[in-house]
User: Fold these one by one.
Assistant:
Number 1:
Amino acid sequence: MSEMSKNEKMARKDPLVQRLSADLGSRLLDVRTSEGLPQTKLAEMVGTKHPRISNLEGGLVDVRISDIVKLARALDVDPGTLLDLAAYKLEDYPLPPPDNHARL
């Protein structure tokens, strides 16, 4: 897997990105298990590998919109079932202060 870009690293520090990733993962796990679908089968259905599904369910990776659509289609649910963006407000998740420490 490729190394995370600077923008991806910065995004992972954003508390809203962290919350959305965790919530998507939790909802994905709930829907997948309620359907009795193994991670390996879901991975096959969306054209990825088992570890990617595991990482998504664990909230460990940022997800693309195209990933949400593929997952929703595979699970036969609306995309909003997996990620309800209307439930979040920016002011509830302020950005942490910038890390201005120089590298040694």
Note: The domain at 14-80 is CATH 1.10.260.40 (434 Repressor (Amino-terminal Domain)).
Number 2:
Amino acid sequence: MKRRSAFFTIVAAGLLLFNACSKGPTPEESFQAYVADWEEQDFAAMYGRLATESKEAITKDDFVERYENIYAGIEVHNLKIQTNPPEDLEPDENGEVRIPFELSMETLAGPVTFSFEGTLIQEEQGDESGWFVKWDERMIFPQMEPGDKVRAKTVKAERGEITDRHGSGLAVNGTAVAIGIVPGQLGDDGAEAKSQLADELGISVEEIDKKLAADWVQPDLFVPIATLPQGDVERIAALMEIPGVTKQDVPARVYPYGEAAAHLTGYVGEITAEEWEELKEEGYRKDDVLGKSGLEQVFEERLRGEDGGVITIESEAGEEKEVIAEKEPRHGEDIQLTVDMVLQESLYNEMKGDAGTAVALHPKTGEVLALVNSPAYDPNAFVLGLSGEQWEEWEGDPKKPLLNRFAQLFAPGSAFKPVTAAIGLEAGALRPEEKREISGRSWQADASWGNYTVRRVTDPGKPVNLRDAFVYSDNIYFAQTALDIGEEAFLEGAKGFGIGEKIPFAYPVKASQLAGEDGIQSEVQLADTGYGQGQVLMSALHLALTYTPLVNGGNMLAPQLEKSEGEPAQEVWKEQVISEETAELILSDLIDVVEHPKGTGREAKISGVTIAGKTGTAELKESQDDETGTENGWFVAVDTDDPSLLIAMMVEDVKDRGGSHYVVPKVKKVMGDFLRSD
């Protein structure tokens, strides 16, 4: 009886103590405060809420460091903890309160969840009396014991590859050669070896010394200094002759076609601190690479994939005890383009040395067969490590190899005349057989034009109809046609060709324009617009697309960059932009531009192939009398018997080099080679 009385006395005392403590934070409130700090990953504040016996078992610094290292290592984010206290929460015979909780978090190995319980005890700490958490390793992971370690490993996703229509790689996962030093093998003349290495690599000895001074460097460890492409065989062999210098194969993004596809593929690079801050919520890590330009950037989300990972618990003896979480990597998507790299290289080689751009399409499907920029850079240099010297060379090159011209706008000159003719025919403002009486090589509408005149290169010495105007590329004829059409109808007709709109295309290309923001401001500007001058600006891609209605019954096609399964399906951007009759008429006239012995495109004639084409020479100068200006030359051509290739090429600075006649043979060469091989 006395024992029972004593037991009731103890319990009563415990209840009195529990109730007395209820004047301060309750156990639920105390644990909820601990959980709030936990969700914020404020580990120092968490430590302040631990019971005395827990603090005696682990120091604050060790506690904070343990949590920080584990959570950083497994890449914890979106940490959430739900407490589930029982309704009849009371201390047990030891004065302890247990509150179940469920934890969920995202990690490098995917979502991790577990259920456990927090144990609290009432005690005094200094001047504070309340409920404190009894902590041990099981609150990190329930499977853990003292001395255990948490191990995390990222399983990298492979970046998707970019290939051409035939499967040839444009951007692939390959290997490069890391050139480095094993310090212990430098020998007595290490300074000389480093000097030789610096000279060969185009870097300073100070850069080499900085890498050799890293904390992790040991005499027998390989210290990477630079990375070279596998194909640089002779240079690598020469480097291997230097004492202490050795090599290792390392994974690398490789661009097999180099300059020929540089602006198309772009390149990848290491993520910067600023980029990581912006993208970390999308799963990027500080050691990731991402697309910096070109298709590597455009298709970044599809190419990058998603890393996998595994989290394990390892015993003090180094043995794996349990796998906490595991996620397989999701490799990036491989993307096959419509581009034909044989054609791409052929165009690039024809243009090499000149500044300009070229676009090739399949005129019946809209498939983009080539997007060429000249000159260009080597994208491999950005991946392997671009020297300051090389960057300065590219930056200072007046031909601007870093500029992506196929995404830019240029005055199309006379290559725009088919658009003017189409608008005039559709508006009823142009009668193709009607001959205009034009005298001489210059003309103005009236005296209000002042000293300004429209000039033509050739005076055929006879009245000119539409066919003649195309053959001789008569600026005066098309200037007069533009005035007959009128500003409003011309603007409306240009909209029909998508001018002023963004092209529906995966690769970002600037929108073309017929005039600036203020529109067509004068009769002179309207006249100049008729032959592709004034303020007309077009990309080579858009200009090429305006020729597709001529072989598609009046429909203007949308460009396609990704190869589809099976036979390509034609995608129409602008349906019936012109009538079938208008299309046939203009196409016939453009055939004469090539076939006629005096046609401006006569140099494009290919035996056994019927080519339609239009030349263009765009003047770039401050005024009509400016003698210091330059010229860009254009030629757009399409085979017409069984249309399979349409090329638009522009070469800058063709003044005193034949104007557009400098460009025509280049297009002919590429077109002839392609059609014969096809």
Note: The two ends are 108 Å apart (CA to CA).
Number 3:
Amino acid sequence: MVMGIEIERKFLVSSEGWRGMVTESRTLRDGLIGRFGEGKVRVRVCGEEATLTVKGPRDGLRRAEYEYRIPVSDAEELLSLSIVPVLEKTRHVVRYSGTTWQVDVYAGLLGGLVLAEVELEREDQEIELPDWVGREVTGEPEYRKANLLARWPGAMTPAR
């Protein structure tokens, strides 16, 4: 179990310049199985690992996050209960200027969307932005997953 505070910033990706810096890639499937106030409960399958994550409401760049490993078989069943279509993406890990970035390339319902996230140790932490990072979308409601599903082309067709 991982408990704590998540502090992250999210950006659109403006070019392919990150591809030559990838150190690791993995395919993820995410399902939203519950909402409460401004929080959510997510299930994720990544290969032979699965997690159940509870995220609290955002307060600036931070939010409470509790993550628990669960059996993949349980996660697969929970994905079938997702209240929105299951999202598929490949997460690429990129190291840049002493910072670890996660570049998510969506497939299926959100195919064509590419977002970069960086987790911070503190909200006021300064980072150098790579040239392949575009506009910051941290906290913009239209870039929350449920809202993306409502407006992205093809998002009404489940991809399970």
Note: The radius of gyration is 15 Å.
Number 4:
Amino acid sequence: MTKTILFRADGNATTGLGHLYRLFSLVEMVKDHFDFVFLTKEESTLEVIPKDYQVSKIPEHLSIEKEPDWINTHFPAQSYSIIADGYHFDSVYQEAIKQYGFNLIYIDDLANEKMYADIVINHSPYLKTSDYHKQSYTQLALGTSYALLRPAFLKAAQHERKVNSIDTAFVCFGGADPFNLTIKAVKALLALEDIKHIHVVLGGAYKHHGLLELTEKHSNVLTIHRNLSEQELVTIMQLSQIAIAPASTILYELCCINMPIFSGFYVDNQELIYKGFLGRGAIYNGGNMKDYSQSDFEFRIKHILGKNNHDVIMKSQSMLFDDRIKARHIDLIKQIC
């Protein structure tokens, strides 16, 4: 009997939505091949979960230490396997899940835990097998061959693109944008006369103020987008010829569309992805953006706009993703079902 998959992740305005969105990417790739339940804590931002998912909620009061027992009670290991994405699913959690007899895939960022999962996926192009402390049975699925991308982006990655001139910019700093980098980047772009239009995508947990006033003042230049479908996001990216974004899931998606990208990091889990993409020559170097000012963005973007062409970076991006990514993930999941 094929087991049902429990996709396990949490996210809200406080913790960010990155783990949810990354797991959504995997669900969308494989949902036609497996039965599944999306499992999340009650305090997660539930409205961002796609409406067609079967969702089960873990009680808010339940501690992470007691969660493996709760899962086994409600979703016994004989019938379910688990795919988990989140930092709280550490060595202790993984070992407990395995002791209940579950097959487990863990989606990792940092390579700083001892791994007990059957399979560990880390799609950063920076990490190597030697970076991991793991069990002898643990299989590693590393690099962009295992990129966690929604189907429309996988499809877009198979098409070549040329950028001959730049007048439209794309800005996205994730679900919560804790340092409000969006408005600094937007103000910098508004100061650059070459940029005629700016598309800003805001996450479900974005709570900062100030963009509305900017939009009213620059309505002919600035367009704010929220709650975009997968295909709508692809379309908005394809309208743009330059992007500003952190080294998170959005960077993978932008590289599929193919354009000059100014990227950096502002939290630890983005740094290894950033180093990997920078090492591959796929992005322009933004470094640690946590303390960026408007003038920092303006200076760096002006430098990029001054380049004659971006063929090298765009070629590097196109080499990151092949047409076997979905098939590889399906094959991995079959191993735990």
Note: The chain has a mean pLDDT of 95.
